[in-house]
Design brief:
Residues 222-403 form the Dyp-type peroxidase C-terminal domain. By secondary structure, the protein is of the alpha+beta class. It is built from 10 helices and 11 strands. It has helices spanning 52-55, 89-107, 138-143, 183-197, 243-247, 273-277, 281-288, 325-329, 373-383, 412-415; strands at 4-5, 40-41, 75-83, 131-136, 174-180, 201-210, 262-271, 340-341, 344-350, 356-366, 390-400. Strands 7, 8, 9, 10 and 11 form a 5-stranded antiparallel beta sheet that branches. The chain has a 4-stranded antiparallel beta sheet with strand order 4-5-3-6. A two-stranded parallel ribbon has the order 1-2. α2 (89-107) packs antiparallel against α4. The longest helix is centred in the first third of the chain and has 19 residues, at 89-107. It is globular and about 65 Å long.
């Protein structure tokens, strides 16, 4: 990189290139390259210094929790917990206090002593853009006696015809999203938080994901999913004037403890890759409504060119078919409904029949899922050409409060209200 810093010793706590939660201007789903978002260090005389990827630290405190507008990371873990039998508000508050303290250390690249000794998994690595994000599921409020504080936005999602949901891998009292640009750093955080849960909560489900690594492409670009499609072009951007209104709960919003927070819809979407890959390229592009090579709409232009939904071809038919995924999901086709998609791909092996268990750990963020995810998914459910090649296998909805102030823990304004 052009901003390489030489002959400077960097400690794990004194790292430049910090990315604030609200400072990821220009973020699109998978805009991972992030050359401007990383600080680099060359080896110094004292030994091997942290690389640019390892040196980047994301702040724990801020207006919004990290892992929402933070640039996409190459490794991710999603894990849901249920409070243990007999655990209530007191135990939940103690758990969130422990988790918040651990997350702050982990994100700074510091060891976390659990039971008197850190596991050492992430020794020698810097923070690597680690983020830890916490959310509360609908059942959390029943377990803690805080039903009166439960947001209406946590009402159960409606059923969709394409759903094949596994209840054991859906929902949960507590949700944790971990992202990092190093696999060992991400796993270290997962293991530390699992141990910190102690007897207060038990793992309900856990999923692992990945994206492109920073620097894997010649220039920053929108990521591709496992179907080979550029995915995330129409994501709202922090530079948009209405971004905060669409993605975050306002300071004057209700309930008050959710000010600065957001709602995460989590869906495990299996891709039927064998069926998809049998389609000729031109048919794949008609299913999506965009060119596979560069993500440009079939109506012409580049990836960021606005789709011309009325353009017709020589045969008089619409260039972008009526059932194309990009047409149906476009904000202009959904009354402006928008959500910030920030997923990970996943691959959980190949079955005895040779079929890969692979797809997308879909995560989307919005100020209100009833105005973001739900109307768009309802429309997709009625006629999206892509539906024949995907299957929704798990689902969750979580309230993610704003970031804690200095000296606070995540959820303190709820649990001590």
């Amino acid at each position: 990189m052009s901003d390489t810093v030489s002959n400077i010793e960097m400690s794990r706590r004194r790292l430049l290139g910090t990315v604030g939660a609200a400072g990821a201007a220009g973020l699109a789903l998978g805009a991972v390259g992030g050359a401007a978002g990383y600080a680099a260090a060359e080896e110094s005389d004292s030994g091997a210094a942290l690389t640019d990827v390892g040196a980047t630290e994301v702040m724990f405190h801020g207006k919004h929790q990290p892992g929402i507008t933070t640039s996409m990371q190459s490794r991710g873990h999603l894990v849901a917990f249920d409070l243990a039998p007999g655990a209530g508000r007191k135990e939940a508050a103690s758990l969130m206090r422990r988790w918040s303290a651990a997350a702050q250390k982990l994100m700074a690249g510091e060891p976390v002593a659990s039971g008197g000794q850190d596991t050492g998994i992430a020794l020698d690595a810097g923070p690597s853009s680690l983020t830890v994000t916490f959310g509360f599921g609908r059942g959390f409020f029943d377990r803690t006696g805080l039903v009166a504080q439960r947001p209406a936005q946590l009402d159960p999602l409606p059923a969709f015809s394409a759903d094949r949901l596994d209840a054991a891998r859906s929902n949960g009292d507590l949700w944790v999203q971990i992202g990092a640009n190093d696999g060992l750093v991400a796993f270290h955080a997962l293991r530390a938080l699992q141990k910190e849960a102690g007897a207060a909560a038990r793992v309900r489900w856990q999923m692992n994901g990945f994206n492109r690594s920073p620097g894997a492409t010649a220039k920053p670009m929108t990521t591709r999913n496992l179907m080979g499609q550029i995915d995330g072009t129409d994501n709202p951007k922090p530079s948009d004037p209405d971004f905060d209104r669409r993605i975050f709960v306002p300071e004057s919003g209700k309930p008050e403890w959710m000010a600065g927070g957001s709602y995460a819809v989590v869906r495990r979407i299996r891709m039927l890759l064998d069926d998809w890959e049998r389609l000729p390229l031109d048919k794949q592009e008609k299913v999506i409504g965009r060119k596979k090579s560069d993500g440009a709409p079939l109506s012409g232009g580049t990836e960021t060119t606005k789709m011309d939904l009325d353009k017709t071809g020589p045969d008089g038919g619409l260039v972008i078919p009526l059932n194309a995924h990009a047409r149906i999901s476009a904000p202009e086709a959904n009354g402006g409904a928008a959500m910030l998609r920030r997923p990970f791909s996943y691959h959980d092996g190949i079955g005895s029949d040779g079929v890969p268990d692979a797809g997308l750990l879909f995560i989307c963020w919005q100020a209100d899922p009833l105005r973001g995810f739900v109307p768009v998914q309802r429309k997709l459910d009625r006629g999206d050409a892509l539906s024949a090649f995907i299957r929704h296998e798990a689902s969750g909805l979580f309230a993610v409060p704003g970031a804690p102030r200095s000296g606070e823990y995540v959820g303190q304004r709820l649990l001590e209200s």
